[in-house]
Amino acid sequence: MTAPIFVDTNILVYARDVGARGKQVRAGEWMALIWQSGRGRVSVHVLQELYVILTRKLRPGLPPAEARAEVRALLPWQPIEIAPVILESAWSLQDRFQLSWWDALIVAAAHAAQCRYLLTEDLQDGQNLDGLLVVNPFRHPPEFVST
To answer: Are 114 and 136 in contact (CB under 8 A)?
Structure first.
C-alpha cells in the first residue's frame, strides 16, 4: 500500500454531481484509484458535510436513506473524529498557513490520518502543509499520486 489520500467533501460530491459532468468524470477517476488502492481517508466532519450536501444542496438530491448508504460506504476509510487534539492542531495550522477554519480542520484531520496527499480544489494546488501535499484533482490525473 502507498501513502493515504485524504479526500475533501467537494471531491466526493463531484463524483455524484451530474450537473458538473467534466468534474464528475475526473472525480470518478480519482475515486476509482482510491477505492482500488485502499488509500482513502476522510473525517467525520467530511461525512457530515457530505450527507447535508447530498440531501439538501445537490440537484437532484438524494433521499436520506440513499445518502446515509453513501456515507456508510465511506466508513472503511477510517474516519478521523474531531477530538480536542485535532482542534488544537487546526488552530495552529490556521494561524501558520492563514487557512480558513474549515480548511484548517480538514488539514489537521489529514495529518492525524497520516496522509501524504489532500485531494481538494479548495486550497492551492501543490501547497505543502507540513508534509501534506495539496492536489487539485482537476489539474492532475490520478497517476500523479502513484506513491
So the answer is: no
Q: Which residues sit opposite 7 in a β-bridge? A: 119
CA dist 21 and 15 (Å) reads 9
Count of the separate structural domains present in the chain: 1
Note if the bond before 64 is cis, omega within 30 degrees: no
Who contacts 3 (Cβ-Cβ below 8 Å, separation ≥6)? 39, 115, 116, 117, 145, 147
Residue 120 has what pLDDT? 97
* Sign of CA pseudo-dihedral 73, 86, 54, 18: negative
CA distances to 10, 15, 37, 138 from 24, rounded to whole Å, are 11, 5, 20, 10
- Could you read off the pLDDT of 70-124 as tens digits, one per residue? 999 999 999 999 999 999 999 999 999 999 999 999 999 999 999 999 999 999 9
CATH code, domain with 31: 3.40.50.1010
List the end-to-end C-alpha distance of the chain, in Å, as a whole number.
9
